[in-house]
TrEMBL record:
It is found in: Cytoplasm. One of its GO terms (molecular function) is citrate CoA-transferase activity. SUPFAM superfamilies: NagB/RpiA/CoA transferase-like. InterPro entries: Citrate_lyase_asu, NagB/RpiA_transferase-like. It comes from Lucifera butyrica. It catalyses: citrate = oxaloacetate + acetate; citrate + acetyl-CoA = (3S)-citryl-CoA + acetate. Its EC number is 2.8.3.10, 4.1.3.6. GO terms for biological process: acetyl-CoA metabolic process. The keyword Ligase does not apply. GO terms for cellular component: ATP-independent citrate lyase complex; cytoplasm. This is Citrate lyase alpha chain.
Length: 513
């Protein structure tokens, strides 16, 4: 069958189940109640401290076929996932489902666990590195479920992603299970993507290398949801968790694109008091923030809040009074961690608060502007951030689709050519974010406005910006570089791409030879 954006998807997928096709960004309302987490109790004098992972596996107990969840705030410095799965393999467990909010190169040992039958299912929002390549080549018998950050929170809250045991890597913990991410040698900042896991998992295990005196302060995840605390030698490598500094690009093409994007925001009339803004941690995205900052300073504008993954640059804007608040679901550098610790206007939020579509209102709904990237974009403004030019999985939606749906103005910034290939195609290989939620594409050669945003196109044209149709930009790119050849894929579905509401927007098929 075809979904609302014309993607061919099966009605039923083995290992996934009955498919509900994507029907539109806001066309599928909730059809179930939020699930109730189990009621727990802990008697006076009972200790939550467990001497090692093997002991906690036996205490829970962890059994074949269970779903184990993990967060990704340690990114490529994570040590807990591999540690836990090594324990599972040692104890002879099989058929586990790993619900890890993002998968990085450091998680390469997952491949061996899959080959040995310890892990037979994956549920994630983003994949890169050896695991993503192996999955793309057909490693798993059943497809990986790829969600958005808000969609994962929704799936957990609504019981579609049922977690038996959540292993929460905690930079700091006390002996009764209060956790935070801002203290200890592996401090990572906000623990927001672990909030739904802690709230709804049947059992919650904190894994830490920094045991603080009770009561821990501040508290991100409270003792009331944590069942056991395990102290290990090292939960993560700080070099992979934070970069120390995240810098604005100095590349001329990237700066030109960023300058144009800032002019789009200005021409749309959104650089005004109360501006709310989200951008990524990449150099080009930060450059947009830099140019927006200049315009805010020139006009005396004071924004409302910055959202999403937080960098030192946004922290500096907060401290200079350019934003009143930061809503932080994930920190990207040391300055973000410092600010979360020290500044009462820097607020830690969970994944559901950030982007779950099935709540009484998530933070992305209050966004004026979001700046997003793209692997490719098609002439209907559908964006791919899952697969690369060879069909390999190399990313995922994360908060891409969530923020695009919520923001008043969604801007995709991208070079017209990437690796000598046009960024604009007739049909993206993998649809991730639907075109109905994308307003503008900004490239170094011009700006394309979604045909459904005619009044915005008129505003940008009146401001003297280089507005073109997306077809014109596509033809311009193909005059510089040849039109890319269609990618040949196999029949096997290796991943399903869910939209934030749980409907299926696309599938990923096995890479061709």
């Amino acid at each position: 069958m075809k979904n609302a954006i014309g993607r061919e998807i099966p009605e039923y997928i083995e290992g996934y189940g009955q498919v509900v096709p994507y029907a539109g960004a806001f066309a599928t309302p909730p059809n179930r109640q939020r699930q109730s987490p189990p009621v727990k109790w802990n008697k006076p004098g009972e200790s939550k401290l467990i001497a090692g992972l093997e002991a906690v596996f036996r205490r829970v107990p962890v059994k074949d076929g269970m779903t184990l969840s993990f967060h990704h705030h340690f990114r490529n410095g994570d040590g807990v996932v591999n540690m836990v799965l090594t324990t599972a393999a040692k104890l002879g467990l099989k058929n586990l489902k790993v619900a890890l909010s993002s998968i990085f190169p450091v998680h390469a040992p997952l491949i061996e666990h899959i080959q040995n039958g310890v892990v037979t299912a994956l549920d994630t929002n983003y994949m890169s590195g050896p695991v993503a390549e192996a999955v793309s080549r057909g490693l798993l018998a059943q497809p990986v479920i790829m969600r958005t950050h808000g969609g994962r929170a929704r799936a957990i809250e609504c019981g579609q992603l049922k977690i038996d045991v959540a292993f929460i890597a905690a930079p700091a913990a006390d002996n009764y299970g209060n956790l935070n991410g801002v203290q200890g040698p592996a401090a990572c900042g906000s623990l927001g993507y672990a909030f739904p896991d802690a709230e709804y998992a049947d059992c919650v295990v904190a894994v830490t290398d920094h045991l603080a005196e009770y009561p821990l302060s501040p508290v991100s995840i409270p003792q009331t949801r944590v069942d056991y605390v395990v102290v290990v030698d090292r939960v993560g490598d700080p070099q992979g968790i934070v970069s120390g500094t995240t810098r604005i690009t100095k590349e001329p093409v990237g700066l030109k694109i960023a300058s144009l994007a800032a002019k789009v925001i200005e021409a749309a009339g959104l650089i005004q008091d109360g501006l709310s803004f989200q951008t990524g941690a990449g150099g080009a995205s930060l450059a947009v923030a830099h140019y927006v900052r200049q315009k805010m300073e020139q006009t005396g504008v004071r924004g409302s809040f910055a959202l999403g993954g937080i960098t030192g640059y946004l922290v500096d804007m907060l401290e200079k009074g350019l934003f009143q608040k930061i809503l932080d679901v994930q920190g990207f550098d040391l300055e973000a961690i410092r600010s979360l610790t020290a500044n009462p206007n820097h607020l830690e939020i969970g994944a559901g608060f950030y982007a779950s579509p099935f709540t009484s209102g998530c933070a992305v709904n209050k966004l004026d502007v979001v700046i997003l990237g793209a692997t490719e974009i098609d002439t209907d403004f559908h964006v791919n951030v899952v697969t690369g030019s060879n069909g390999m999985i190399m990313g995922g939606s994360g908060g891409h689709s969530d923020a695009a749906a919520g923001a008043k103005l969604t801007i995709v910034v991208a070079n017209l050519l990437r690796s000598r290939l046009p960024i604009i195609v007739d049909n993206v290989l993998t649809a991730t974010t639907p075109g109905e939620t994308v307003d503008v594409l900004v490239t170094e050669r011009g700006i394309a406005v979604n045909p459904g945003r005619e009044s915005l196109r008129q505003q940008l044209t009146a401001a003297g910006l280089p507005v073109k149709t997306i077809q014109e930009l596509k033809e311009m790119a193909e005059q510089i570089a040849e039109k890319p050849k269609a990618i040949q894929t196999g029949e096997k579905i290796v991943a399903v791409v869910e939209y934030r509401d749980g409907t299926m927007i696309d599938v990923v098929r096995q890479m061709g030879d």
